[in-house]
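Final report, Chapter 2: Outcomes

The project's central promise was a pipeline that accepts a single protein chain and returns its three-dimensional structure in a standardized token representation, suitable for archiving and comparison. That pipeline is now operational. To close this chapter, we reproduce one record exactly as it appears in the project archive, with the input sequence first and the structure output second.
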Amino acid sequence: MRVLLISANKEILPDPVAPIGLAYVAAAIKKAGHNVSILDLCFSEAIEGVIRDEIKAYNPEVIGISIRNIDNVSYPNSISYISAIKDVVDICKESSNAKIVLGGSGFTIMPEMLLNFLNADFGIIGEGEETFPELLEKIRNGNDFKTIFGLIYRKENRIVKNPIKIIKDLNSLSMPDRALLDNTRYLKDGGSGNIQTKRGCYFKCIYCTYPLVEGSDVRLRSPKLVADEFEVMEKEYNLSHVFVVDNVFNYPISHAEEICRELVKRGLKIKWSCYANPGFITERLVDLMVKAGCTGIDLGTDAASEKMLKSMGKNFNLYVLKDASRICNNAGFSVCKSLLLGGPGETKDTLKETLENIEALNPKAVVAMTGIRMYPNTTLAKIAEEEGMISEKDLSLTPYFYIAKDVRDNLVETVEDFSLGLSHWILP
């Protein structure tokens, strides 16, 4: 079958992100014997013409549309992407009789709502490398869809949601098909290559959707295969910098260390950066990361107050955060600190403590989010319901943000005032 995969993401701030998930699915579809093409709308201006031209030229039988984000998760300047995504779906439906399949991390968070609102034929919840090729076979042969794990679809004017199954052996997956992406354009516009070394998250951050998207079981890729992919990106695609898109690169520590050792053995010139958890920063690991080409690290701190670290469900305390920052700074890393301000229990005192402590850690950059976007099936949503803020069932495609009562009236102004004149503080 002819399959057209469309990346609907057009957000380029803080930098454009190549659709690695779509490249993974494309490789799986191709391996199953189908023809596949990717249309990445990230840098397109007149998307209607671009989509119509691609459909006319390729004549797809199935169109997959990847939804990376529902909105920009930013308060108070919240921007929803849903209407733009609906335009993409509508243009596809007007231009083709192809079946429409939705997927991606954004879709997985709210699959029923999005399938309804966008009026698509099918959706894939979670990983698509096994589900999408199986769906293609069922469509081609006219078989029933009830046995396809992770599929959500319409049947007799109702929505059917099949059980979800994770891919246990990530080493069985083909390498993402980057030949279908404009890798040069991403580098030119400030992006980078990207790579995944694991899936799943066992951490208990109260707001996080990673366990919903990837599951709570951590599944590791072979360090050798990860290094192979780094080598391909450098030698075949001329990528000079790569971002590791794992929710946490440095857990388990032993896995991260072995990846670094494999990269050191290859003698690659490619540079990379990653997300990291302060609770798993050691001097030995950081030394290996430096030798392996790592230049930057984003420490997901969320807060720098003992009370708020506990409230946010973090696995580390303030002492561990300070020690991790010291190790990273001494190694010469470009360290970014990410903050989520206004969570449950936030007060003027805890907010002041976090702001001052973070700045004292000498970060290269600070990304400070005011308010926390709430999603169904998270601990934060349940807390908000218990506090009478909003019922979890009322959380929808419209962004709702949690801001603690004690700081609700002045959170944004307090952070703006503190960061005034600090050019390394970024308030999305």
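Archive annotation: The CA atoms of residues 257 and 285 lie 6 Å apart.
This record, like all others produced under the grant, will remain available to the consortium after the project formally closes.
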